[in-house]
Write a structure and sequence with these properties.
By secondary structure, the protein is mainly β. Helix content is 3%, strand content 51%. It contains one helix and 37 strands. Strand 21 and strand 22 form a beta hairpin. The longest helix has 12 residues. The radius of gyration is 25 Å and the shape is elongated. The relative contact order is 0.13.
């Protein structure tokens, strides 16, 4: 039995390169893991790993949590999904352990990177909008009560979420977002132009004057000095504020007619994204000085409501919102694959060998073998997943081959996100 090694490395690389130089918008891939449930929260834990949270807010409130570890190819649904206050935000202290916050004071916990969530505590009956991890076991939560007697609330845990303390709970527009520079210094923003700052770990909060009265939905910084707040008004205004002095004062970068801006995320200090109502996706490549509209899918009608954006780096990110719409962005280096010969076994079994380098991204590989060089009668092995930063040996075993025949084989590898 002779096995002829047929390398198709050049063909594999050509196919991958064709994917990588496709039209820019084709690097966004559409998914709908939650069916019709809304997505409010995204967190990216590593290459290919996304935790998704949301549900239904009204009527019989529903909690929905999903997770993928292969760029959206497959999804895991939380075993406890069902009637419960919906999720609004997610934060992780490491690659496995994290918390989510919900309406009605519900706090949920995961220890398996977002596959499954339990609900350990409900420390206060407030709607919880945003959770952040600041290091050293410290989490902060912002929220409140958006009824006639509006309340703004901030919670804190300094023992990795085991216990929670109410740091701020007073009348005022509720809070939607937090940013902390460390465990002590942070800023909270919310409706009615509210901007609060603390320098003592949340014990006291000082009001910062806003240059325009809008509902502020999200805050982030790209350094100790430069930060952004996004929001708007139900009357149809889209607002971006900027600070260059660490949040001590803010100025208007944009305040124009448009859908309310809901979330902001930077892939690196230069490249960032903002999402919001009216299918709004904005992108900056100059550290937020200017923002340009970005069409991520030609089928969008303009009525979509995007609520969350998160980027891991310039090569991997996601946008999601109402109705479970989820778009994942990937720009991944082509994997390299080389056949490495075979090992003869007993009873017509042969182990086919190859080396694969995926450049740190999740990929899927299969071997193909045939008794003729044209592969007219090709047999494919079951696919396997791989992620590597150096060449890694993989193999697959054939069965029932004829010892008197010559066979041909090659290995094929594709980025899962393609």
């Amino acid at each position: 039995m002779n096995f002829v090694k047929k390398s198709v490395t050049s063909t594999i690389m050509l196919l991958s390169l064709l994917c990588n130089v496709s039209v820019y918008a084709q690097q966004w891939h559409y998914y709908n893991p939650t069916l019709w449930f809304d997505i409010n929260a995204l967190e990216i834990l590593g290459p290919g790993v996304i935790a998704v949270g949301g549900g239904w807010e009204t009527n019989d409130s529903v909690l929905i949590m999903f997770q993928t570890e292969d760029y959206g190819l497959s999804w895991y649904e939380n075993a406890h999904d069902g009637p419960a206050p919906w999720n609004k935000s997610i934060a992780f202290s490491d690659s496995l352990d994290g918390y989510g916050v919900c309406n009605d004071g519900r706090i949920i916990k995961t220890d398996d990177a977002g596959r499954n969530w339990g609900w350990p505590v409900t420390p206060i009956n407030r709607d919880l909008n945003n959770i952040v991890y600041t290091g050293s076991g410290t989490y902060y939560i912002a929220g409140g009560n958006k009824t006639q007697d509006s309340v703004q609330t901030i919670l804190k845990s300094n023992d990795y979420g085991s216990t929670w303390t109410v740091m701020h709970d007073t009348l005022g527009p509720w809070l939607r977002s937090l940013h902390f520079f460390d465990t002590l210094q942070g800023i909270a923003v919310g409706d009615g132009g509210v901007i609060l700052s603390t320098g003592d770990g949340g014990n006291t909060w000082t009001t910062i004057s806003a240059p325009v009265i809008r509902d502020f939905h999200s805050i982030t910084f790209i350094g100790v000095d430069t930060g952004f707040i996004v929001g708007g008004s139900p009357a149809g205004m889209a607002t971006i504020l900027i600070t260059v002095n660490g949040g001590a004062s803010w100025s208007v970068l944009q305040d124009a007619v448009g859908g309310i801006l809901k979330d902001i995320s930077f892939a690196n200090p230069a490249v960032g994204y903002i999402v919001g109502d009216s299918a709004t996706v904005l992108k900056t490549t100059n550290a937020g000085l200017t923002w340009a509209p970005l069409l991520i899918d030609s089928t969008l009608t303009g009525n979509e409501e995007f609520r969350a954006v998160k980027f891991y780096d310039v090569y991997f990110g996601a946008v999601a919102g109402k109705g479970g719409k989820l778009f994942i962005y990937t720009d991944i280096s082509s994997p390299q694959a080389y056949t490495m010969g075979t090992q003869g076994l007993l009873n017509g079994e042969v182990k086919m060998l190859a080396q694969i380098n995926t450049s740190g991204h999740m990929a899927q590989y299969s071997f193909c073998y045939s008794s003729d060089s044209t592969f007219a009668n090709a047999v494919w092995t079951s696919p396997g997943n791989i992620i590597s930063t150096t060449p890694v040996q993989v193999s697959a075993t054939t069965y029932g081959l004829n010892n008197n025949n010559r066979y041909y084989y090659f290995v094929k590898v594709n980025n899962i996100a393609d």
